[in-house]
């Protein structure tokens, strides 16, 4: 196949034991088709492909005539990294192999991963425009400190892994008014909802400490981010660079979790809704429109600011909460965001742009190369 644009884009994804040996096949198929329409060579590869490489390039997969074809391909000029690594060992392996690839063929990294939730929080806290919208956050430092937090924050706190995804291993902890009993609602490592109740504060705090183990966790006040029916909800905004290399707001959607489900993440059984009508329904017209306006303002500010801290980025998933008083909170920033919300709310323009933009931005970078 002859491609009009010189240079190739490699989509790096995790290995898989499914029908295909790589993850996110449906998303990758769409990326490859968009690349073909734009006259670009877009293919899929996994980390082992790097060490298998030789003078012919590296093995990868292209979507041709309706099927995936494994073939030798030129080393990528741009890497679109969709490969999530959750542990230190995986991160070191990835860094080593990508360095090995760069030694043989220098490439542009389309979007780097952010350095974890704690580092992002510390960076955002230094920005005067953004700090007022951040919930107070600290590193979990053991049962004694957790007990102090419970006393200082209306006897309710929220705990989450520093490097967690999809709401897994999150905990809501409530100390009874008596100051002795502890109730817990949480999600397991497999994202299953569970509840625990302890008659003594000591037993509850020890159980939480054991649940956390050696994993780094963050602790925050428990924010009342529920709708009138008591269901948790948040607002996902997808920010991406476009064909001109400029940040643009691709889409905005509300994600609602089942009652008592702790998180609104779609992986935890949530549903998606169009943002403005939902927030007007929950908060009233004035407060709903104000919340959307604030979220838009923050969404345009956050990516540009984080680039000054961490270097070039290409897309970010921003999660916001809105409490019953209409106060907007910045909850999370994701450097490898999903797109499911925009397909579920029936927003075809945002859904299409969410997949087109990474390839359009990659094309912009290739055309900008000296």
From TrEMBL:
InterPro entries in alphabetical order: YheC/D
UniProt-recorded name of the protein: YheC/YheD family protein
Organism name: Paenibacillus oralis
